[in-house]
């Protein structure tokens, strides 16, 4: 029976959910089921196997590398990756793999065996896997050199050293001066390939140098160092040559090893490698690096007391900020640059209008766009009559979509589910912007294939913290190290470090997934959804349940205070928030949201069509106690003065029954740019249009109202535009 048929038979024993998870890790997120035969055919393709390997932990990656290295030693290099040969022809004995990973250590062998079994559960080790280990040809081709075993000393010396360096090593090892390179090289290799002589040499080494050698071997046999400098080469198909750097590398332990050939140039600039013969002599057996245990959390972690409360406040603030950012886009849509992304000045304007930092504003704009709440809209360019030339490019702006209106009507939990589900699976870390990338801009296309894997790994690292403990900024290196253990491929491919991991943690904190450096209940649900694959298919039920526990129900009432503030204890419902946003300014957010009333905010409400009596009635309905007198006086006083000046649209005119006020306006120096001229005791004309006249009057402290040609008051509400 072929490997493909055996794999299909094994897949039949797995649940449809398990098969869909394997399919998702290969790169397909469709809900459609796939037959075991088709899935088996897919998994044997090199690209599919490599996609699955991206989700391996460090010990799993090390185990697969050991299998590929052993197969290359036993069966030779893989000459044709796409040749339709049965992978079973490159099988290696399971016992040999365990020897290479764990030697004779019983506990370590048990961990290695468990690692191979885990790989078999994910179809990376193919059936049968009781006494043989079979992996896809794609893994043989790409992982044979990733086992962390150095190359033979003869190969490294021949490729990267000229005669003077060989003679220098021979002299350091105590050999007399040879006449030619061949003699010196023979003496050096004779020692380096003799395990007893290498052990004797290491016995004479400083203790720190021995420890440093073992540390290099345990981390893949290669190390970055300045021990060598280039001496030519670097041409097409030409191996680079190196010489010892005058003055050494700056590390005496590295220099001691390099001088005696225990550390040799690896090829890439500033990279050195321990020859495999030296590694075997130092370890006493042929071994590859194998780290079954993840890094342990450091001691003295701070308490994460009050994390749930902080997460609740962060989630509430995030939802409020997103609503304000989207409202600012609806009021004055930002423009798309020709080079891509939003204009920086528009982003800053939205950030100021929403009261949010620039980087957080960019995050909300990008997430809302990816969630389908914002969309691009190109204004059509009308061709003038008789125009035959090329029309200018249309102006593209960012507008709310019709889904935005539906989103606003949902409960706070449902609105936040949309944002968190988008954040979890988006292939980008938007708040991470390296200096070399230039000025940060919003609305960039997500294209980081490693972002989701790094996000999963960071959540896994935080989930491993002791209960009730979190990490501070000082503990970020541990999170990075632990996350890299969970997803070594993503970290190695992206070069991710503390900066990127810190950006992921900050984004998770802003959404309530992390608080006090610890994972919250919602954060654990997101991690589980990502690991199971449901984050791409059906995250809503689990997220809704978790957020319902963390967030209090939406509030429909507010407490109005005599200092002209309104306080909502918890998250305000959409109707309450809309009412208070119309008549007051948000002052603070968190466990409670505070609005402040002023003359300008009440005038704004009247400009939008509210009337004093109806407004007081609506505020009374949502008040937890009678409205304080100062608020009632403010609304009534503002209503009495509102509209005393009428801006008429006829090109434009101002009228008022208060002749003294008309005379005051005509003589006002602050309004001289309007060119006001009195044409009647109660009528003025302006040299500019009604919109600019209204703006200038309000800036000067007056409270005009817009009136139509028929004398009917016009409600100043911007037309709603949608992408």
Per DSSP, the total helix count is 32
Strand order in the sheet with the most strands: 18-19-17-16-20
Q: Could you report the average pLDDT, rounded to the nearest whole number?
A: 87
Helix content: 40-55%
Task: Identify low-pLDDT runs.
Answer: none
Return Rg in Å. Answer: 35 Å
| Most strands sheet | 5 strands, mixed
- Helix-and-strand structural type: alpha+beta
What is the total domain count?
5
Summary tags:
20 strands, 9% strand, four-stranded antiparallel sheet, XPB/Ssl2_N, 32 helices, five-stranded mixed sheet, alpha+beta, 5 domains, 49% helix, elongated, Helicase XPB/Ssl2 N-terminal domain-containing protein, 723 residues, single chain
List the helices and strands and how they pair.
Blueprint: H1 3-12, H2 16-26, H3 36-43, H4 46-53, H5 58-75, E1 92-93, H6 94-102, H7 106-121, E2 132-133, H8 137-143, H9 153-160, H10 163-172, H11 181-192, H12 195-203, H13 207-218, E3 222-224, E4 228-230, E5 242-244, H14 252-259, E6 264-265, E7 271-273, H15 276-283, H16 307-331, H17 344-354, H18 358-370, E8 374-378, E9 396-400, H19 402-409, H20 412-425, H21 451-463, H22 476-486, H23 488-494, H24 498-510, E10 514-515, E11 518-519, H25 521-532, H26 540-550, E12 559-561, E13 565-569, H27 574-583, E14 585-588, E15 592-596, H28 599-607, H29 612-622, H30 629-641, E16 645-648, E17 653-655, H31 659-667, E18 677-680, E19 683-685, H32 690-699, E20 704-707
Parallel strand pairs: 16-20
Antiparallel strand pairs: 1-2, 3-7, 4-5, 6-7, 8-9, 10-11, 12-13, 13-15, 14-15, 16-17, 17-19, 18-19
